[in-house]
Queue: 3 jobs
Job 1
Amino acid sequence: MNHSASRKVVFYSTRPYEKQVFTELLDARNKTLSSPIEATFYEHPLTASTASGSKGFSDVVVFVNDDVNAHTLNVLKENDVRHVALRCAGYNNVDINAAAKAGISVSRVPAYSPETVAEHTLALILTLNRKTHKAYNRVREGNFNLQGLMGFTLHQKYVGVIGTGKIGKAVIRILLGFGCNVLCFDPEPFPSVERMGAKYVSLDELLSKSIIITLHCPLNENSHHIINANSIAKMRDGVMLINTSRGGLIDDNAIVKGLKSKKIGYLGLDVYERESELFFSDHSQDIIQDDVFQRLTTFPNVLITGHQGFFTHEALHEIGEITLDNILNGGNRI
Ligand code: NAI
């Protein structure tokens, strides 16, 4: 319990569902605190030009697409912000060195129901394979023709999992339940993964053997564009590629070429490299300027969701609780 002076906290990029969860959690927490947390919710993102709005707040709470670069951090420092709390796991959007130089601590939510993202990964795989999104529309229109809906049986197929941390392991558990042969690549392998029944192989072997490849590694300088023209060339013809991790893992120009040549047979994305300009907002009345994204949406074998892998009631609740713990108790500092 924190008995220090009251904390003023500002949330950037807040959506109504988040405001509701955090308000409920704060109401409950404040009853137990001698000095309540005062929260302000901004809908706009944090960038160098919106950082001025942090004046008077000790803590800034941000999400996946807020741009916490060195310029932003300088403004936060001038405004005496002491802590940036990420309400997500990935922190590729924060300049950690610049934060340390500015004396601003950074926290994140390293784990919240990894099964949540794993289950969405399987939703993409199963939908792309069995085409339930197309069947839904056909049946509603009275069209019961099965032409074009044929899938493949997952049982005993080779599936490659790149990154075997918390989410990767949850995906592996589910895939093993389907009876798949799971091949994994991770620079830091876990003995528990092999005990579960999956097998670590080189990245090249994974790429060349897997009929489905799913990405669960963080975005960093080593993993940026890990899926590129070279790695795609090593894949099986008609491979299914799934990315619920971070958009920057994939070179999307190479992906478009791979789809056009039919090397890539299915693509499921929950993340996109330039998603900050699109995701989490309604652009249905706008002319979308990102031609690569628009091209991707024209392929019949591409399924894109707008970064909703984390989006369950349970996960949002856990994210909220851990973020408030991080603010109050200084936990999960990076
Ligand atoms: P984690 O830190 O538990 O596991 C990541 C694993 O990737 C580690 O075992 C690490 O050794 C491995 N790795 C690092 N570099 C690699 C490389 N170059 N190639 C292969 N493996 C590599 O992370 P967790 O919790 O499993 O999350 C994974 C990613 O999922 C996060 O970094 C985040 O970007 C993404 N994510 C997406 C969400 C969504 O809503 N779509 C929600 C939460 C996380």
Job 2
Amino acid sequence: MKILITAGPTYERIDPVRFIGNYSSGKMGYAIADACADAGHEVTLVSGPVQIKPVNPNVMVVKVESAAQMLDAVMKYFPAADGAVLCAAVADFTPISVADKKIKREGDNLVIELKPTADIAATVGKAKKDNQFLVGFALETNDEEAHAIDKMRRKNLDFIVLNSLNDKEACFGYDTNKITIIRNTGEMKRFPLKSKKLVALDILNEINSICIK
Ligand code: C5P
């Protein structure tokens, strides 16, 4: 299959030297990209700024910085893909305008006005054909399952991978993750804490089970 994957954070520029970002390491998305490529799939990895590289040399990496650039790249590659796994921690807001010179320290408070970014998952969900699959992630702190199910429906996902910030050693920066996979059929699978490499294999198994109907 041709599989499109997003990973990492996005950086939203404030001025030539500053940005709004987040702590996403990209490790989960890169592990999924490697697992898919190791299984013989053709992988395009649209990645925000991260410090890591895929291990499998067959992964094609498309580097982007902002949410707008990530959306453009995803909409370019999705039509030819059999499906996508959207793992990136996309910024929800971006500055209304980017200062062309470094903002000086003067006056009291500095106000930076932000506008919402496009929801890439929801945009892909609308474009998705019956023969394409779409997988998303949810990172929640409270009412995890209810919020994840709501997200899966709103974004038209086939399944959503839920990770909770309440779990120790899961999520941002860690090499391990603890997930729950929720299918759009309502089926729910809880997995124990594992390395992100093994979590990637569980996600690939789930993709296989929806693609082999
Ligand atoms: O709504 P929320 O950001 O929690 O949804 C998370 C899921 O949506 C993830 O799969 C993430 O990659 C995707 N997403 C996206 N574009 C956004 C925000 C989230 O693709 N602007």
Job 3
Amino acid sequence: MTQLSVKHLLGIKDLNEQDIKLIFETADNFKTIINRPIKKVPSLRDITVANLFFENSTRTRVSFELAQKRLSADIVNFSSSSSSVSKGETLIDTVKNILSMKVDMVVMRHPSPGACVFLAKHIDATIINAGDGTHEHPTQALLDAYSIKETLGEVTGKKVVIVGDILHSRVALSNIYCLQKLGAEVMVCGPSTLIPKYIEQLGVKVEHNLRKALEWCDVANMLRIQMERQDIKYFPSLREYSMQYGLTLPMLEGIGKDITIMHPGPINRGVEITSEVADSDYSIILNQVENGVAIRMACMFLLASNQNS
Ligand code: CP
């Protein structure tokens, strides 16, 4: 297979296993290229991409922009804080105005779940979801699974626990879809107030004890508590959360086996993970960030190829 089955990248739910494997194979090639002295290729030379960020981002935004520059695309960057959104302009009007300047592809982060799906129904450009509220963050899940494959040789058959604020996490949902499509077993771990009631219907195991979850897994993906999405108190205090679900080096070493530690960022050091763990040899956190560029290059290259076919 040389083409994706989708026109947009709205969520991992829409992809099949072949799509994900094609993205990984393409990312392998781009990873080789970006480690060469001359990192730039002309693959998106005639493509204009708008990066529309209606919500804060460090990693995703920089990673997409770097990926676009490595592919020689023309780029326009937009952030809602400095735009006419603050004057009351709607999402559709904002995007239609930008697209009238002949933009081919839109990378969008938005606080509302489904914002990218909505946009894809109303405009012709290719849409890439860079995180929509509590819904999906597909390129994060792809780079996470790619990093597991790179570290452990394969994803199939691996046991992955996602720890923390599952209820508010788009990373968790996209990871669950992606890992299951690649044949991994997935568990979620956290306080019951932060685990959605429907989660077992997705074929995911649930564990409330972090030590038991670590004993079960090959990989632990530690999530931060998303205070900005919490309108009520889900646990007594961050200190209490950290005592029950914060990953420390003595705990990890006490398990007595190699566990790969991941985190999508941003990290709250000392809450869900200590600095000792985040900066240890167990951690592949910076490998995830590095792989994000190659994965995003692959996604944009393959979607642009679909535009031309
Ligand atoms: N992982 C992630 O989405 O990080 P940012 O919010 O910094 O983009």
